[in-house]
Write a structure and sequence with these properties.
The chain is mostly helical and 312 residues long. It has one domain: MetI-like fold. It is 68% helix and 0% strand. The longest helix has 37 residues.
Length: 312
């Protein structure tokens, strides 16, 4: 009798590369291109200490006699300042790499906080209903009725007033994350609430409740996994939106300070010298911000279409 061994169980990685989602990604040229560009931007940003010719946060490394140098391909440009320098002698390329890292970290952190708050409140509103649902959704309606930038400016300004001067600069990134998350959680809560209201009426949820499964376990282990598909899409798109909001707040002067520049701060500083001839100070950070946000949005659009069962 021939001894036949059991077939090897495929790993999660093998299952992913054999899935329809991976096939959709490979066949979507714009998504592949956006992923390559986004990956390059993120890797370059987090390798900024290795790739940058200068530490833009180290004031002792700035040389004022090298201020407002043009890009290397223009007359007057010099190495190692490939994209030129600003009015303080800060290398534009170094500022962009470090600034991109700050913008990405704030975007990821704000999305993570929004997800935790929005998913938790959405599960509670959809599962319990009643006055809990009414209160949470009315709070969300009030926040959505105010422009997002105005909400972020209000939260950022109020939070910084409660911080001591010693902690004001150190805590500005946390304040920005809080300001962005204060508005963004509503979208996640609404999506999770709608899915939860559908799932709680299904037979497997009713059976779990009859056998005495605790409500928290029921929401986290049974209902939540069935709400993750639209959440992933919303989180991807909101990541790009969070980066734009942070850049807007920094451009308006209520975001990152000049000694810890994000992309928005670099654009704000460079905008003051746009008509003096030093156009490169504002142009290159603006291009980097556009590339980053467009790449994220293209991936989000692909993910939305790939996970939509009506388009399969």
């Amino acid at each position: 009798m021939t001894d036949q061994s059991d077939p090897k169980t495929p790993s999660r990685t093998e299952l992913f590369f054999d899935s329809d989602l991976w096939w959709s990604f490979k066949s979507h040229k714009s998504a592949v291109g956006a992923a390559i560009v986004l990956g390059f931007v993120i890797v370059a940003a987090f390798l900024a200490p290795v790739l940058s010719p200068q530490d833009p946060y180290d004031l002792a490394a700035l040389e004022l006699w090298n201020a407002e140098l043009p890009p290397i391909w223009m007359e007057g440009g010099q190495m190692p300042y490939l994209l030129g320098t600003d009015v303080q002698g800060r290398d534009i390329l170094s500022g962009i790499l470090y600034g991109t890292r700050i913008s990405i970290i704030i975007g990821i952190a704000s999305v993570a906080v929004s997800l935790v708050v929005g998913i938790g409140l959405g599960l509670m509103a959809g599962y319990y209903g009643g006055w809990i649902d009414n209160v949470l959704m009315r709070i969300g309606d009030v926040l959505l009725s105010i422009p997002i930038v105005l909400v972020a400016i209000l939260v950022s300004s109020v939070a910084q007033q409660f911080l001591s001067p010693a902690w004001r600069e150190a805590g500005v990134a946390a304040v920005l994350v809080l300001a962005i998350a204060m508005y963004s959680w509503v979208q996640y809560a609404r999506v999770v609430r709608a899915q939860t209201m559908v799932e709680r009426r299904k037979e497997y949820v009713q059976a779990s409740r009859l056998v005495g499964t605790p409500a928290r376990r029921l929401m986290l282990k049974h209902i939540l996994p069935n709400t993750l598909t639209p959440i992933f899409v919303a989180a991807t798109l909101n990541f790009g939106l969070a980066i734009l909001i942070e850049a807007t707040l920094s451009f308006l002067g209520v975001g990152m300070p000049p000694n810890q520049p994000s992309l928005g701060t670099l654009i704000r500083v460079g905008n003051q010298y746009l008509f003096s001839g030093s156009w490169w100070i504002v142009l290159f950070p603006s291009i980097q911000l556009c590339i980053l946000v467009v790449a994220v949005n293209m991936l989000g659009d692909w993910l939305r279409d790939a996970l939509n069962p009506k388009l399969r």
